[in-house]
Amino acid sequence: MITVGLTGNIAGGKTVVAERWRDAGVAVIDADRLGHAVLTDDGEAQAALIEAFGAGILDADGSIDRVALGTRAFRSPHDTARLNAIVHPPLLERLGREIEAARLEGYDTVVIDAALIFEFGIPEDLDQIVLVTAPRELRAERLARQRDLSPERIEELMAAQMPDIEKVDRSDYVIVNDGSIEFLREKADAVLADIQEEVSRCAGSD
User: Contact at 8 Å (CB) between 5 and 126?
Assistant: First the structure.
């Protein structure tokens, strides 16, 4: 079985690619959902994050604000390492259970769909990484149009994520989403075909 990381910053088009691959019969695990679960359900992790980054990472109801956490945790390599040390172990534990479940169901390709795949230190556990990216101005336009966000809020969201330029060299495939949805889906199909060809080669060499 091959494990593929699918990542990309906000409004880049990652979700469209994930849906396309899921429709093609590939097991797609939403690691962002698992990471969110760690931040909301794991009391030990919550306490450790508040101790490490302060009460400023909490929103009005006392829950961890992921944007506020990201703003603090990704401002320096040291802070990012602190975040990884807290979140990485429980996240990988949950992820491992879902990957194993997919393996037992007979899937030969499992995609880990995660916006924070680099930030959470997951790449070393993956066989391939696919980055879906788009020009910053285009992503801002999409956020303003689709979510009715202010320029200030858009800037906050973008600033909380590692820039795509830092992810390109660490990815095996880069899908540039600067056209229509149909064109993005075609690119997604081409990348998936290439990955599955590698799966077939690996199976043939066993």
Answer: yes
How far apart, in whole angstroms, are the C-alpha atoms of residue 67 and residue 160? 6
- Using one digit for the tens of pLDDT, what is the confidence trace for 126-155? 999 999 999 999 999 999 998 888 898 888
C-alpha separations of 100 from 79, 95, 120, 124 in Å:
31, 9, 20, 17
Name the CATH superfamily, with its identifier, for domain 2-200: P-loop containing nucleotide triphosphate hydrolases (3.40.50.300)
Using DSSP's 3-state secondary structure scheme, residue 160 falls into coil
Q: Residues 169-205: pLDDT tens digits?
A: 999 999 999 999 999 999 999 999 999 998 787 766 6
Domain coordinates in residue numbering, the chain: 2-200
